[in-house]
Design goal:
12 helices; five-stranded mixed sheet; binds pyridoxal-5'-phosphate; single chain; alpha+beta
Length: 383
Amino acid sequence: MINGRIPLAVPVVGAAEAANLQACIDTTFVSSVGPFVTEFERKVAEATGGIEAVATSAGTTGLHAALVALGVERDDLVICPSFTFIASANAISHAGATPWLFDIDESWVIDLDQVEAALDRETERRGGDRIHTATGRRVAAMLPVLTLGNASRPERLRALAERFGLPVLVDAAAALGGDAWGEPIAALGELAVISFNGNKIATAGGGGAVVGRDGDLLRELRHLTTTARVSADYSHDRVGFNYRMTNLQAAVGCAQMDRLPDFVAAKRRIAARYAEALADLPGIRGFPQTPGSNCWFSGVVLDAGAPMAAAELAARLNGDGIEARTFWKPVHLQAPYADAPRVTMDRCEDLWSRIVTLPCSTNLSDSDQGRVIAATRSALGSA
Ligand SMILES: *Cc1c(COP(=O)(O)O)cnc(C)c1O
């Protein structure tokens, strides 16, 4: 609780983060090289099942550099779900490509049946490339998003990628600490990106990491994120990026990685308690959950039978000193992507305005969660 208000999702930081930051000051290693960066990369690789991790300045910059490393070029199409945080689509745009937007399935991840049908119907093989027949544009990659820590079935995703010859970059920005149906996140595609922004399950203040299992690809990615420098005499062999994480960020990130198992346990416990305590309310659903999900966010979906709209429930809870919010507005409804190519969007268009996220900080106390549950029940007329 902060001044009597229960926040939605705040970072939980303390003495361990402070001690690591002090060590950066004491040693003057505050910038983009330092022992915490190396240690942080090792911890993230281990937690995601990657052979290596490359720390970046943000999840978004990690996605951008990863797309370039995978060979995405200007005017390419990259397959992406519309129901995601806008950064997924922005990274595609930063690479000069265009997101080809798809709907979601019942787990709120990209609808692979719809993707497969569209690839069959609208694309053809030319040489080694997958070409969108009507526009002549190359389909360069798939960018599935692990929404709330949920994942497509790994074998289905891999089979589809293989059939159409597409590399997979997984936006696992908020999925750290979980797995995908028992498989490590780094095994889902060629590369996966984690975010350490303040609202994610573990934070570095800001930052990201790219993980994978292909040493050559990860080396190329590291090269790109560190200005593509080939020697100490200011020689560079590509248009690279300055996307490095600082030792200060990694100092916080290292302390957070040590607490990750506790954070995941807390997120799952909070989600399970909401699900149980609100299950009997008419017209209310919890969030879907695939096996291994880290349960990044908790909340409810208000269906047609609910006594009020989601925005009204959020307003009522905020009036009671409980921070509750709506969730991602689909990318195809955002101004910069009004003209992005897309398939039908029935499910995400119906869903997005029905979602209310509820307080789920990893330090949420039992009594505060009890207060959120009581207020939600009261607002929905079933106290
Ligand atoms: C947070 C998030 C990002 C962006 O990460 P930043 O570190 O904030 O740049 C991208 N995709 C998804 C799904 C996210 O949740």
